[in-house]
Structure formats: structure tokens, C-alpha cells
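Posted in: Structural Biology > Protein-Ligand Complexes

Title: Requesting predicted complex, iron/sulfur cluster in pocket

I'd be grateful if someone could produce the C-alpha cells for the following input. Sequence and ligand are given below.
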Amino acid sequence: MLSILKSLWTVLVTMFRKRVTIQYPEERPYLPPRWRGRIILSRDPDGKERCVACHLCSAACPVDCIALQAAEDETGRRYPAFFRINFSRCIFCGYCEEACPTYAIQLTPDFEMGEYLRKNLVYEKENLLISGQGKYHGYSFYRVAGLAVGGKDKGEAQNEEKPVDVKSLLP
Amino acid sequence: MNETVMVLIRTFGILAALLSVGGLLIWLERRLLALWQERYGPNRVGPFGLLQVVVDMVKVLFKEDWVPPFADRPVFVVAPAIIVIVTLLSFAVVPFAPGLAVIDLNIGLLFFLGMSSLGVYSVALAGWASGSKYSLIGGLRSSAQMLAYEVFMGLSLMGVVMQAGSFDLARIVEAQQDTWFIVPQFFGFIVFLIAGIAETHRLPFDLPEAESELVAGFHSEYSGLKFGLFFLGEYLGITLISSLVAVLFLGGWQGPWLPPLAWYLAKTFLFIALFILIRATLPRPRYDQLMAFGWKVCLPVALLNLLATGAFVLLKG
Ligand code: SF4
Ligand code: SF4
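-- Reply #1 --
Done. Output follows.
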């Protein structure tokens, strides 16, 4: 009996506590930078597309909502000919971002993606690509990769030794 | 002639007031529950979300009014009306202020008890006519619960009747000129409050519609306006029990300074809020606990209270 009165009292004084509801459209919740929302494709510091069309993200995606096709420019640099994410299927798991070797694909703290037509939820490359570097600054895959590509030869990447002629190592 | 017009105005005024109060209570309950759960509740439509009531009404009215093919159609249709009608009829004897009542019945209290007992037909028939097992179980539970709680609901009030020497609610209020009956009849008050909650099957005594086990109990199969009527009946029931607690134990319209009607409304509102607070706080007991509590605790308390009051009145008289 006493415990009932006690709990009634506890509930009654809850009245004077701060309410936890966030009045959404007027008040915005704080979303941390690594919040998993709308996906973007970023560019490297030189302003070129980071994506090298390795298909790792589409392989990692549990719901298979990423579609892309690889292409190569005259300098040997790979890029996606098209890159399509179907956001009506995406579950915002972030696996694509984890799989990506070039920091190209990134999730952002934006969740307001409502559409009246479902087909508008299919984002093409021009919808996904942003002009900046996203969350990871100063990283360029081709600058660190030991790959000969447009103007950069083998051994010219960051922290890379000049290639050695293996025959010269012979005793 | 003039008299008749006055009576008509009074009756329909009270009716309109009650129906709008029934609607407003939906809003009030949602806001209060939210308040006690650190939320806001409906606050978008209109000032303080007050127009939510209108929106809800429109929604309920335009919902498809579906009668399941396996239901017993006539009974199914009549059942929700019963609870609203009997509850509204009970209000006829409640004195809101001196001279402001639909009728001044000299057996007012008995009339109320009779009407509230009829309310169980609504629930039991709804459960039976729905033709589904959940509804039937809900209906059965409610009949058993009503039987148990009806008994001491009446008994708990007899103390008041003895002290006031009348079944007439207006006389009872007048008898509380000096002391409110909540003081000498404290146990009667507690028992009546509990029985009242059980009578309106509000939480924690909402076993007939226990969502977690019976879907929605006796009104599982109801939709649209008929469902709305059950809702209205429930909220009117809350208002009725709160008014009666105010009238029988808290001196009804009696009180200093403010006009009588304001006192009556304030006291009633207090108990409506208490009903909602109880809903926000207490979990639902098991069915056997409910019955055991009724027969083994409340009934003896009501009887002892009756005995003590009888002895007191005899000694004094
Ligand atoms: S967040 Fe998950 S579901 Fe969405 S595209 Fe990336 S891997 Fe696929
Ligand atoms: S976004 Fe990343 S993982 Fe996906 S294809 Fe481009 S480089 Fe590969």
C-alpha cells in the first residue's frame, strides 16, 4: 500500500522534470559527425574523384543497393562510369564506407531524404558527388599507392622507395 | 410552460457539456500522461494541441464502420450504445450546484448504483456478440470483475447514506456542511474509489481489455464510431465516478469564496487527474490477484466500515 503511494508520488513529481522530447522541425537534434546518414562520394585534395571503381563497396553492401561500372581515363586512372545508390533499399549500415580503400564513399549526418516518388530515392553519381573531401582531409589514394598513373611513375608515391632492379641485387 | 423550457435547457446544456468534456478528456489524458512521462503529448493541432480532439473525432467518424460477418449483428450494434446511455443517465441525479441537476431524485444514489450495474451489459454483450475468443474472455472477465466490485461499491456508500440519512445526493451534499464525509468515512472513500476504478475498467483494473494478452478485450472487433462510443463511455465513466467522489465524500459544491459550480468542477477535476495519475503509475495485476483483492480485502473493509458507522450512528442517535 505504502509502495503504491510512493510510486504515485514519484510519477507525480516527474511533472517538474525536463522533458526529453526534441520538438523536431523547430529544434534540431545534435548528430555527431560520424552519424550514418545520406551517402556522398568525395573528392581528393586535387578535386578529382576519389572513387577508383574497385567494387568493394557494392560487394560489402548487405542489401546490394550500390551499382557502378568501372572505366579508365587515358592516364590510367580508374573512375566509375556510373555510380548509383538506391536509397530506398539502403539500411545505412556503413559497411560501404568501411570497405572503401580510398575514403571515397562516406556517410553524413543528414537524414531528411523524404521523397514523394520512390524512384527519386535512386541517386546517381551527380547527386552523390560533392566538391569537397568530406570527413577525411588530405588523403589521396593515388598519391600513396605504388601505381603508375597519369604523370606519376613507380617509386614517386609518398614514402615510396625508388624501384630496385632485382638483378642488381644478385651476388 | 416556463418551467418546462427551463428543464429542457438545463438537461440539454448538461448533456452538451458532458459530451464535450468526454471528448476533451481524451486530450487531457494524453497530455497528462505525457507530462508524467517526460514527453509533450499532442501539442501541434491548435493551441496546446486542443484541436487534436476535433481531428480525432473526424478520424473516428470517417473510419470504416465494420461489422465482422461472424458477429451477432443486432447485439453487436447495440452494445456500445448501452454504456454511453447508462452513464449519461447516471449523470441525471448528480447535483452540480444547488438546484442545478436534471432531476432531484430521492433515491438518487440507488439510481446511480442501478445504472452503473447496467453498464456491465455493454461490455459483456460486446464480448459475446463479437464472436471472437479474445472478446469473449474480455467480456467474461468484466462480468466477474463487476460482480465482485459492484458488491462493495454499494456497501461502501451505505456509510455515507447512514450519516446523511438520505439517498438523495443533494441532501448528502447538504449534510456535509460542517465536515466532509471523507473524514468519518475514510475507508468508505478508499473502497469506493477502488471500486470506481474497477467499475470504469481503467488501469490498473482494465483486465477486460488487457492489451498485452487480449488484443483489446471486449472491443477487439469494434471500429469507427462504435469504438468511439466505447471510448466516450469510458471517459464519461471517469467523469461520473470523479463527480460522485466529489459529491459524496468531498462535499460537492460546498466550499468558501468560489461559486458552488467552480468548487464542484475543481473537486471533480482533481479526481479525474488522480485517475490518470493512477494509470500512469500502476501496472496491471494478475486476474486472480484482482479477484482476491476484491473479495478478501475490499469487501471485509467495506463491511467493517459499515458496522462501525452503524454503531456510531446508533450511539449518537
Ligand atoms: S550503408 Fe550499407 S546498405 Fe547503404 S549502401 Fe552502404 S553498405 Fe549498402
Ligand atoms: S566508393 Fe570506394 S569501395 Fe566503392 S568502388 Fe569507389 S573506391 Fe571502391
